[in-house]
Structure formats: C-alpha cells, structure tokens
Amino acid sequence: MSASAATASHPTNAPSGSPARRWWVLVVLAMTQLIVVLDGTIVNIALPAAQQELELSDTQRQWVVTAYALAFGALLLLGGRIADYWGRKRTYLVGMVGFGAASAFGGFAQSGTELIIARGLQGVFAALMAPAALALLTVTFSHGRDRNTAFAVFGTVAGAGAAVGLILGGVLTEFVDWRWCLLVNVPFVIVGLIAGLILVTESKAEGDNRYDWLGAITVILGLGSLVYGFTLAEGGWGSADTIGFLALGAGLLSLFVVIEMRVAQPLLPLRIVADRVRGGAFLMQMIVGSVMIGALLYLTFHLQIVLGFPPLEAGIATLPMTVAIMIVAPIATKLLPAIGPRPLLIVGPLIAAAALVYLSRITADGDYFVQVLPALLVLGIGMAMIFVPMQNLALTGVAPHDAGAASATANASMQIGGSIGLSVFTTVYASVTDQATVTDQASQLVAFTQGYSAAFIAAAVGLVIASVIAIVCIRGRKEDLLPSGDQQAVHLG
Asked: Where is the Major facilitator superfamily (MFS) profile domain (predicted)?
C-alpha cells in the first residue's frame, strides 16, 4: 500500500537505459511492494504463537498489528515528500536498510514491548520505502503501453500481497517458527538493496522544495493520540485518559488543518480532501481499512483459537475471500464505465455488511464450511465492488502536481482506518468477553466467540455507514466521476 508525490513533480535525472533493464527495475520494485503489503498481514497468523511465547496481553497483541499500520499510515505523506525532495533512490535504499534491520530486531524480540517497537519501526521505514518505490516506477515508465503494463503488474502484486502474507505466515509459523514471519524479510531486503544499487538511477523533484515539518509533526502526533485514545477505551470510554487523548488527537488534527491552510508548500493541500467526491472516497477507505485490517484479524483468531486450525490451514481458510475478489474485480471493472461508480459503492458495502452479519453467527462448536466459508465468499464479492471504483475516485480530477499527495492520502486513510478500527473492535470485543462467565475451557471459547461476533457486527455497522457516505458524497455524472485518457491517475494499495 504505497503512494508518492512522484507524479506531482518534474523529475530530474530520470531513470534511463535499455528496455530490458527497465523491466528488471519493475521486478525489484514489485518485490518491494510485496514486502510492504505482505507485512500488514503475515503476523496475523503468527500472533497466537507469539502471544503464548512472549506472554502478550490482548492489548499488546493488538498493538503488534496497530504499531505497523499506524506508523506506516501516519508517515506516508512525509515519506512521499522525502523521496521527491531528497532523492527517490536514496530514500528507497535507506528505507530498505531500515526495514530489514527492524525486521531482524522483531525476529529476535524477547518481550512484547520489543516486538511492538520493531513493528513500529517497520512501519516507519515502509513509509519511506513504499512511496519511493512507486515514485521510481513512475519515472521509469513515464508513458505509453509499457507504463500501463508496469502499473498493472505493480497493482496485481499489491492486491495479492495480503493473501500471500496469510499463507506465508501460516507456513512459517507451522513448519519453522513464528519469528520467521519477520526474519523472512531480511533476504528480500538484501536482494532489493543489491538490485537497487545496480539497476536504479537517482531522480528527484526540481525547484525550491521545502518540508512542511510543522504539519508533519502535528499530523503524526494527532493521529497517534487519536489511535491511542481509542485503545484506552477498552478500559472505559468515560475515563480521563481516554477522553484526554481523544481530545488531544482531535485538537492536533484541527491544528494540522490550520497549518496546511497557511504554509506555502503543505504536506497535504486541503483542496484534495475538500472535494466532496474525493473526501467521500477517503472516508470510505478508512472504513474499508478498518474491516480489512481490524475485523479480519479476529477471524484468524477464531480459526486458530476456537476452531483449532493449525496456522497453515488458517491461512488457507481465508483464501476464498481473495479468490472472490479476484473473480469479481474484472467484472466490476467492466461494469464501472457502464453504470458509474455510485451504484457499486452503495451496494458493495451493503453486501459486505451482510456477509459480516452472517459471520457474526459463529459458534464455538460451529463448522467452517457452514458458518465461515459462505461469509468469506460474499464478503469478497462486496469488497471487489468497493475496491474498483473507490481507487479511481480517490484521484479523480486531481491536478498533476497534487496526484502524489492525493495517492498518499488514500493509502494513509486505509492504514489509519485499520488502526482506529482495530482499536474500536478490540474495545467491543473486550467489553463482551469481560462480561462473560468463564468456568472452564469450553466456556472460555464461547466467550471468545461472542467477542468476535460483536466485532464483526461493529464492522458491519461501519460498512453500512460507508454506503450512506456513498449516497451523500458520490454524486455527479459517471463521465465526470471517472478519469479518462491521459488524465487518469494511478492509485495502488
């Protein structure tokens, strides 16, 4: 899930060379995208084993996922600017080194705190590495059919990364050790570094480029306070700490808006989010991120902890949703120019919400093929109907010099939505399980299942809200809503 302001600038020293060399650059950059997306899900399958070995609390378990998504999402805008201003190759290489070091640190973590810190550092360096990779791809394939092919490959890798993460996480956890879900990044990083040094040419934006450091610091602290406040809500929404951090986060984000209105080169030009259609798409991406990152984590817990699936089987058991997305996405792509994005964005969330409601009917002694599989297939159908138009709308009508910031905002919305959603779902889960009467292992599994069910219902409510957002915000003629020709912007994630 990556973005950059690369499309927003005129590159200098753009990568050049033989056509064969350009395709090798694509292979390297696509591998980078795979690592970034894969790491958002690979630890999901490993978490039960890691929790048991490191004696993590449920809150710490949540933060193993949240730390990566939050750091990644909060720093994406700044990462894109650093890549453009400092140099895309340089930023890419530094991001790779840092990501590899953070992965190694996490693989040898001896406590929950160390693991959470490692995941946060992974997110920090992913926010450098991912935007730089997309920026390099943009200047390497600047136009024509080769550009379309390159971005199609890059997007396919991004879409498959989450599924690969679940499967690979299952294989490594079951047959090697959960720590290899982090250590596996190291050989990829080494290959990426060597290939990047040999194949990639430096490029950067021209002109007087100034960093909006005040805006960057404000938005990072604001998002961090907001997510942490939601995490504290597990202990009660009325506590002083919960209210304080939520208020602090809201205040800092309001200050960020004021700063962006006044600085000459804002981190996020407000005209990007002020547009009703794009703003609606960003809000929907936050909700979709909460479902894909937050709610589905509890599905992997149900499969392993309650149904007793080994890690590999748990990873494979989630594949039907991915298969459904891959089958329906091309159909939705063909429907898009015919009916426009609005019907898909209204109906898609409702279909996905219905799937989550069905999934909430799980029981501790239930059958996967009856209670889970149908829901995953329907959820995949609904998500495919959302993904296709939502990605296009995120950049529709964006001026070329704003395309990078808009793409970063879209990706950041997904990651931050996942962080906040996971915090909310954890609070809902904890409020249900804390009230359950647990006398033995069987009653404990029942309590877990009730908590997971409540989280699925909360996610379904979010998707219904997404449908309402589409009704209110996604308005206009389909010809105006869909980019065409040379104006079409690219968003991957």
From this structure: 25-478
